[in-house]
Description:
Radius of gyration: 18 Å
Order of helices and strands: EHHEHHEEEHEEH
Structural class: alpha+beta
Amino acid sequence: MLYNKNSHMSKIQFKTNREARAWILENIQQNDNRYSSGLEDTDPLVYFLRNNAIILEEKQLPEWLGPPREELNKLRGPQKEYKYIVIKILEEMAVPKEQILLEVLFRGYRPDVYAKIGKHTIVVECCSCAISKVLDYLEYPNTEVWILTATTALPTAKIITAGIHWFIFKRSSNWDTIQKKYTQFSSEQKRKVVSPLDAL
């Protein structure tokens, strides 16, 4: 929807559930032990990806030089280099500065960067994050989710974007159908759960 036509973009699809799980752990949870990584965490997103309810793309970041430290220090919170990259992307997309916010409340979370462009919303997580955030964010209509992966090259890299991957999640036209099926399945599974208290 609001992309620079000169930037390279590739669509990501998975042949197996195992392949999708491995990708999720590598690029969303990113081996960060603060976030759980069991099947109950990965499989909801696996289901949506494997049933083509989500369009997943990787876009190539431009090679940008790192900004002066005083410019980074103006940014709120941690992961300042990543936030700087996202803000620069959005500004190059002609998003007004007043529409770009850091760590504001959205659907019970505080995404690192939030941007509102007309009816469209972009939420960005920099580095590792809870896997559940992707679906939770996408449940809000007309929302894109961006993830920028962590890199060990920062903060000393001359090219600030070196080693960072930029992934974009969007609803597909199949979203409503798959969401309805998944909601029904989840409800059926919850009804099957038996509590030890039921025997008292």
